[in-house]
Amino acid sequence: MTGILGYARVSTSDQDVAGQTMRLTKAGAIRVFTDVRSGRNMDRPGLQELLAYARHGDTLAVVRLDRLGRSLGELLATVTMLKERGIGLLSLEEKIDTASAAGELIFHVFGAIAHFERRLIAERTKDGIAAARARGKRPGRQPLDANRIAAAVKLVAAGLTPTDTARQLGLGRSTVYREVRRAGIQRSPEFTQFAARGEDSFPASPSD
């Protein structure tokens, strides 16, 4: 059995989902899932519950498309997911019903827009990298300073804690631990345990 599953969302607890619920029920929703979440909040347990409950052939109904997302990208991602799962979409105010022949076209239009947006993002990224290179910059994670790494290894080997070493040289503590391990410095059998926990102390070997 397939049916219409309603989704109602309001942004704050001061608002009431009753109005949306009534309209969705009138439109044929056999069950309405709700959220009190801002459009910017991606954690929507009500929507996740609906999607877990929905089956192929069901229809997700909303009063307005902005109930599903406040950005075009988020809306496109949701619509694409619905199509892949064989779930229809019904929006009352925009008069979109993908169960109809005309409504099916909406899925294709949304898909084309999503593809267009992805291409734009890819092109902008490439243009940004090209512009950065033209200015002499190297995009992406910058390589570690070999001299600072060498100094860090020497300081730790001399007995300075990885935390103090990182602070003095302006390196991340995890970076110092990693490079010390890579250099094969193990001043005591406990080093691996301390490094894994990110401890400040660095036990000295019995020979110290």
The run of helices and strands is EHEHEHEEHHHHH
Q: Give the number of DSSP strands.
A: 5
Total number of domains: 2
Mean model confidence by pLDDT: 77
Poorly predicted regions are 188-208
Helix content: 40-55%
Major β-sheet profile: 5 strands, mixed
**Discrete helix count:** 8
* CA-based gyration radius: 28 Å
Overall, the morphology is: elongated
Query: Any idea of the CATH class of the largest domain?
Result: Alpha Beta
CATH architecture of the largest domain: 3-Layer(aba) Sandwich
Q: CATH superfamily assignment of the largest domain?
A: Resolvase, N-terminal catalytic domain
Give the N-to-C terminal Cα separation.
Answer: 76 Å
Structural class based on helices, strands and sheet pairing: alpha/beta
Physical arrangement of strands within the biggest beta sheet: 2-1-3-4-5
How would you describe what is shown here?
- This protein has two domains: 4-116, Rossmann fold, CATH 3.40.50; 146-197, no CATH class.
- Helix 3 packs across helix 4 (101-134), helix 5 packs antiparallel against helix 6 and helix 6 (162-169) crosses helix 7.
- The chain is built from eight helices and five strands, in the order βαβαβαββααααα.
- The chain starts with a strand and ends in an 11-residue tail after the last helix.
- It is 50% helix and 12% strand.
- It has a five-stranded mixed β-sheet with strand order 2-1-3-4-5, with helices on both faces.
- It has helices at 18-26, 45-53, 72-85, 101-134, 146-157, 162-169, 173-182, 191-197; strands spanning 4-10, 29-36, 59-62, 88-91, 96-97.
- It has 208 residues and is α/β, with parallel strands linked by helices.
- Helix 1 (18-26) links the parallel strand 1 (4-10) and strand 2 (29-36).
